[in-house]
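It is worth pausing here to work through a concrete case rather than discussing structure prediction in the abstract. The textbook approach is simple: state the sequence, then state the predicted structure, then interpret. We follow exactly that order.
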Amino acid sequence: MRTIGRLPWSSSNATVATVNATTGLVTAVSEGNTNIVATATDGSNVSGSAALQVTASQILVTSITVSSGRASIPDDATEQFNANVLPGNADNRAVTFPPVMRL
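Step two, the predicted structure:
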């Protein structure tokens, strides 16, 4: 494949992704579909395109605060612990408490 000169680049839906017209570097903007297009500048009006799907970014957990009502409990007692996961809109806020290892 031979590339002649620089081709101007464009996006068919700039609300989904923008593209640097000179370099072809694409920046995702929002979830959706677009086509990235390169067009010949030799007067032939020939262009090529590739479909691009932008998916939503995964929102990861940034912190977990574990708490209970008491810091000390008697032998053979139980205590409920709670986990507060942030941010509240994280994609997977599930937490697990691994099994306790007895020493």
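Step three, interpretation. Strands lie at 9-11, 17-19, 26-28, 32-39, 47-54, 63-68, 81-86. The mean pLDDT is 89.
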